[in-house]
Specification:
The chain has 385 residues and is of the alpha+beta class. It has helices at 44-52, 94-107, 110-115, 117-137, 153-165, 183-200, 211-217, 235-240, 245-250, 283-289; strands at residues 6-15, 18-28, 33-37, 59-64, 67-68, 79-82, 171-175, 203-208, 220-225, 228-233, 257-266, 269-274, 277-280, 296-301, 306-308, 322-331, 335-342, 345-352, 362-367, 373-375. A hairpin with a 2-residue loop joins strand 11 and strand 12. It is elongated.
């Protein structure tokens, strides 16, 4: 398969007065696994449908390779799409579902077959070999004689993937293809899908609202909200260096805590006052705060970067203890998500299940100062760019 790049250049899609996608500019490299992630209604599926040719952009241009495909019919874009609901033909057996697209493209009608029967026979043999090769790759060769209703959800998803792969397209488009699977099968299929994409090397654009799925699958992630692209980066970049408060709270489970803080002068350096507690900051953060003394900022901290005096690692750069009251404890096996009240604000800490805390307890929290994030409270944009 030959992978192609994909480019959205200032693409906008309007449905009446509703702007579904707003000035989307996104470049996807040949062979890259790009994940579009965001909440329902953020425009990610609309972007995918415009690339597939199922929707026309209101403004902007879309490229596959060096060819602008705005006016190219869907059938001529050399893409293959895998849908959330599998979209298998219920009356066709698995073999015919996989082979159907190839037959349409290569045999080009019954009349052609009748007048060129020898060539048609050779093409059918090539199609048969290709179908069986892909079926073996996805470990469904024993299912080729079955109807879709005789398959489990995971088996149907493999058939849908096989139907896309067998065409050897330049680009794969996947619209939440695992959302109908149960949790265990979804995890298994996700791992298999990642290995398969790496093996095939085909440019793949994958749409999901599940940030865990985005983090585990994508070589890069594009986070969208209200039709606007918020940030593009590797999973590590998006998680550890979020561009704004939306990305910070959308990526990560539980989400990043956000606390309002006053910037003040303490011992000749900027510091943060959160409630009744004063937190010194590291020099890397102090540089960003020197011009904001007397103003408010939003302080972000991941739940796993909050400790009690019994859980802090010896090499952590910690704040002074901040008193907090345990509000809710959510067990998750080896850890607990502990909801805490700090001067009227609520934050979540991930603590080892071996550290016993109960609702109503007062605990002393310490924040890992190295992993604080600072945001502008008016715009939500990071101050660390």
């Amino acid at each position: 398969m030959k992978a192609e790049s994909v480019r959205f250049e200032k693409v906008t899609k309007r449905f009446g007065s509703v702007v579904a996608v707003n000035q989307l500019t996104l470049h996807i490299q040949p062979g890259e696994f790009m994940v579009l992630v965001g909440p329902s209604g953020c425009g990610k599926t609309t972007a995918l449908r415009m690339l597939a040719g199922l929707e026309d952009p209101t403004e902007g241009k879309i490229y596959i390779g060096e060819r602008c495909v705005n006016e190219v019919p869907p059938r001529d874009r050399d893409i293959a799409m895998v849908f959330q609901n599998y979209a298998l033909y219920p009356h066709m057996r698995v073999y015919d579902n996989i082979a159907f697209g190839l037959r349409l493209r290569e045999l080009k009608g019954v009349l052609w077959q009748l007048t060129h029967w020898s060539e048609a026979r050779a093409i059918r043999q090539r199609i048969d070999a290709r179908v069986r090769q892909v079926a073996q790759m996805l470990e469904i060769e024993g299912l080729l004689h079955r109807l879709p209703k005789e398959l489990s959800g995971g088996q149907r998803q493999r058939v849908a993937l096989a139907r896309a792969i067998v065409r050897q397209p330049k680009v794969f488009l996947m619209d939440e293809p695992l959302s109908n699977l149960d949790a265990k099968l979804r995890d298994q299929t996700r791992a298999e899908l990642k290995k398969l994409q790496e093996r095939l090397g085909v440019t793949t654009i994958y749409v999901t609202h599940d940030q865990k799925e985005a983090m585990t699958l994508g070589a890069r992630i594009a986070v969208m909200k209200d039709g606007v692209l918020q940030q593009v980066g590797t999973p590590e970049e998006v998680y550890f260096r979020p561009a704004n408060t939306f990305v910070a709270t959308f990526i990560g489970t539980p989400p990043m805590n956000l606390l309002s803080a006053q910037v003040l002068e303490h011992a000749g350096k900027p510091a943060l006052q959160i409630g009744s507690a004063t937190l010194p900051v590291l020099e890397c953060h102090a540089q960003k705060l020197r011009t904001r003394v007397g103003q408010r900022v939003l302080v972000g901290i991941r739940p796993q970067d909050i400790y009690t005096d019994r859980t802090a690692p010896p090499d952590a750069i910690l704040s002074e203890p901040v008193p907090a009251v345990v509000d809710v404890v959510e067990p998750h096996g080896d850890r607990n998500d502990v909801h805490l009240l700090v001067d009227g604000a609520t934050l979540i800490a991930q603590l080892s299940a071996r550290i016993k805390v109960n609702e109503g307890d007062t605990v002393a929290l310490q924040l890992h100062l190295e992993y604080l994030h600072l945001f502008d409270p008016a715009t939500g944009e990071t101050l660390e760019a």
